[in-house]
Amino acid sequence: MTGHTTARQRLTAELLDALRTDGGVRVVTGEPGCGRTTFLDHAARLFRPGPVRYVRAGGAHELEDSFRTAGPLLLCVDDADRWDAPSRAALARTAARIRETAVRTTLLLTAAHHRPLPAELADLPLLRLGPLTPGDAALLIRERAESAVAPAVREELITAAEGNPALLRALLRRLSPAQLSGRRALPRPLVDGEVLADVAGDRLPGDPGGLLLSTAAAARATGEEDVDTALVVRACPTAANDPLPDLLTRSEGRLRFRSALMARAVYATAPPEHRRAAHLALAEAATDPDDLLPLLHRAWAVSAPAPTVAASLSSAATDPSSSAPPTLRRRALTRAAALTPDEAERARHHLAAAEQALLAGQAADALRLLERARGGTAPASVRGGAELLRGAVLLADGPVEDARESFLLAAGLLPPPAAARATLGAADAAWSAGDPTACLSALSPTHTPPTLPLAEACVRVPRDLASPRGGQSCRRAMGVPPLERSREWGRAGATAPPAARTPPTDPLPNGTMPASSSSASNPSRDHRDGMRAVLLARFDLAATPLRRVVETGLHGTTPDPLLRAAAAALLLGDVASARRAGARALAAARTSGSVSLEPRALEYLAYAELRAGRHQLARTHAEEGLRAAERAGQRNTAAHHHAVLALAASIEGEADLVAEHAEAALRTARRHGLAQAATLAHWAVARSDLGAGRPREAAGRLGPLVRPGARRGHFAVWMLAVPCFVEAAASAGRPQQAAGVVEDFALWAACGADPQAPSQLLRCRALLAGPDTADELYLRALGEHDDTAGDFERARTELLYGKWLRRRRRLREARTRLEEARLGFERCGARLWAQQAAAELRAGGAAPSAAPAASSGAGDLARLTPQQLRIARYVAAGATNREVALSLSVSTRTVDYHLRNVFATLGLRSRVELVRLVEQEEKTGARL
User: Fold this and answer.
1) Is the pTM higher than 0.85?
2) Are residue 140 and residue 230 in the same domain, yes or no?
C-alpha cells in the first residue's frame, strides 16, 4: 500500500517502538482473514536495528541461537498456535527469557483468535488486530480491484466485509467488472455461505448445528456480538450439559463467538431449514412472546412475502412504549420491509428503519435505507421524511449547505408539524454555515405566531433595548442583516416569530433537530419563537418562550426535550439548568440506546462548562464526546468537540494540543462549510499565542475574524474573541486597531445576553484608555468579575492590571494583583498564563510565593505538564500508546512526542522505570 500510511502500518510502527521498552514479546491475534501474516511481514520490513529471522515449526535450535546474537534481532513466528506442544513450550521458554533478561531480542508471534490460545501462549502479552478502517478498506479495494469500482458499490463492499481484508478480497474476486462498475445488479445476499466458507477455510466445523447455530441465529436477529445464554440454552436444551464449543466464549450470562466472521459463516453455511428451525426455537424460548425479539425470530423463520408478519413486526418496532433499543428496532423494520410486497408500504418500513439506524449512530446504514425509501413511487410524505432524515445525517456529517437544501425540500413535501421541524433543521444548517440571512429565510413564518407581551417577555435587558430600535444595535454588533430588511419581522409586529436553535451568545452544538417522528409540540414552537427573536436581537421577546422550553424540558425523560432545554438554557445564560438538562439528556440517550444523541448531549455539557469557566470539565466532556461522535460517524459534531478541546488546551498552555485539535476542526470545517467551528478553532490558536507571550501573532490571527469585512468570523462567535484581540493588539503596541471593535463589543455587551461581557468590556476599555481613566476601569472590571464565575477571566484582568501598575512603578499594588493573577491561573490549570504572572512579579522585584510543598517524592512528576502527567499515568497503568491516544482523543504521534519528553524530563529509559516511579509517588501520597 505505497503512498499511504494505513492504520495497520502505524500500529506496526507503534508496536515495534513499544517493544523496545516493555519486554520485547507480543502475540498478534485476530479472526480468520484479518491479516496477521501481512502484519508480521510489515513488521519485519520496518525493523531497522538488526536482522530478522522467520522461525518455522520445530525450529527450537534457532530460538536458542538467537541468544548468541550480539546485536538487536527480531524473531517472527507465524501461526504459533498450530505448532506442536513441545515446540510451543520452547517458544514460551524463549519468551520468558526475553522478558526477564536484558537481551536485545524481540519476539513477534501470530495466533488465531477464533479458538482459545494454547496454554503455553495464554499468559503472553496480546495485540488483537481489529477491523480495517473504512479508509484502509477503500485503499485495499483500489489496489486489488482489476476494474473500476463505482462509489456506491465500494461503500457496500466495505460495509459487507466489516473490515475483514480476506473477505473483502473474496468479494472482489466474486464480482464481475460489470457488477463492480454498477452496470449490473449485485448478487443478493452479497456475502453468502460460499464466500464465507472460502474465507473461514478448515476452521469451520463440519456440522455447525446445535448451540453454534442457535447462538449465530440469535446474533443474526439482534445484530449484537453477544447474546443471552439462558435464551440460547432454552432454545437448544440438548446442548445444556455439553462442553462449550471452542468457537464460543461465555461471560456474565452472555454467549458470543470469538470471531464475528465465524458467527456469520456458521449461520450462512447452515441449510435454510435448519436456520428457520433455530429461529423458531428461539422465538418459543422467549419469556415474553409478544416482545419484539421473538416476533423478529418468527419473521426470520418465514419466506417472503409475508405481509401479515411484516405488519405485526412493524407495529411492535414502532411502539413508543417498547424498551427495545434502536438497533433492534432497525433490524425489525428492515426485515419487515423485506417481507412486504407493497412498494409504498415497503418504503415506509425503510424510512422507519433509517430513523432507527440514525438514532443508533449508524449513519451510513441510514443513508442506504433512505435511498430505498425515496424512490419515485414512494408517497410524498415518505419522500419528505427521507429528505428530513437525510438533512439530519448531513448536518452531523456532511456539507451543511447540502443539509439545508434537504431540509427545505422536506419542508415542501411534509404536512405542517413535520414541515416545521424541517424548517428548523434548515435554520440549524444555515447557522452552522454562518449565514444569518439564510437562517432567517428558513424561519420565515407561514402563519401568524403567538403574540408575546413585552412586559411579560422583558427579563434582564436594559430598557433602551426592550424595543425593535434598541435591538437594532445588537444586530449591528452581531453583523446580522438590519431589521429594516427583515420583512417577516415587519409583518409579525411586536411578536417573536420562530428562530433558529443556536444562540449568538455562545458557541453551541451544530444541530439539535432529533430524528423524531413525533409531531411538533408547544416546546418546539416556543423554541423556534425564542431562537428567531434572539437572531433578530430581540432578547426581550426571547426570554419567555425560552424559559418555557427549559422548564418543560427539565420535566421530560426523553432526550429530545432535554436537548432542547439545554440549548434554551444556554441562550438564557442559565448555565446550571444547561448542565442539568445536558446531563439528563446524556443519561436518557444512553438508557434508550440513542447513540447519535450522545455526542450532542456531551457537546452541550462541554459548552456549558466553558461558559461557567470550568474548562477542565469541558475538556473531559469534549474528549468523551469526540469518541462518541467518531463512533457514530458524526464528523461535524466531532469538529465542534475538537474546537472545544482546542479552546481548553489554549487555557492550559498546551500548544501542540491546540494545534492538533484546531487543525482537526478546521479540516472538517473547510470541507463541510462549518463557519462556527472554524471561528472557534482560529480563536483557540490565537489565545494559545497570547498565552505563550506572542501578542503580535495573536493579533494577526484575530484581526480578520473580528474586524468588519468578508473574512469576519461566524456572526455568533466573533464577538467572543474580541477581548483576546484587544489584549493582543494593545500588548503588541497597536491599540488603534482595536478601537472600532471595542465599540461593536459595547453594543453586544449592552444586549445583556452574555454575563462575562460587561467585565470584559471594561477590561478592553482600560487597555485602550489613558492613565487618568485606566485605573478606575480596571477596578470596575474586577468588581464586575465578582458577579460571574470562573477564575480564568478574572485572573486575566488581574494580570493586565498588575502589568499596568508595575509599569507605573506602583510596585506594591502591582505585586498584589499579579500574585492574585498567578494563583487564579494556577487554580484553573493555566500554566503558561501563570508563568506570565510570575515573570511580571520577578520583573517587579518580587519572587512569586512558593506553591504548597507536596509530600516527599512529588518533585519528579511535578515537573511534567498536565498532558504529560495524564499520559504518564495511563502508560504506568499498562496502556499502549494507541490506547492512550484513544482515551485522550489525540493522535498516537502526539502521545509518542509527549512520552519521549516524559522520559527525557524524568531521566527514564523504559516504561518499567516509569511504572516504578509512578507507583513510588502514589505510595508516598504525591498528588498525581
Assistant:
1) no
2) no
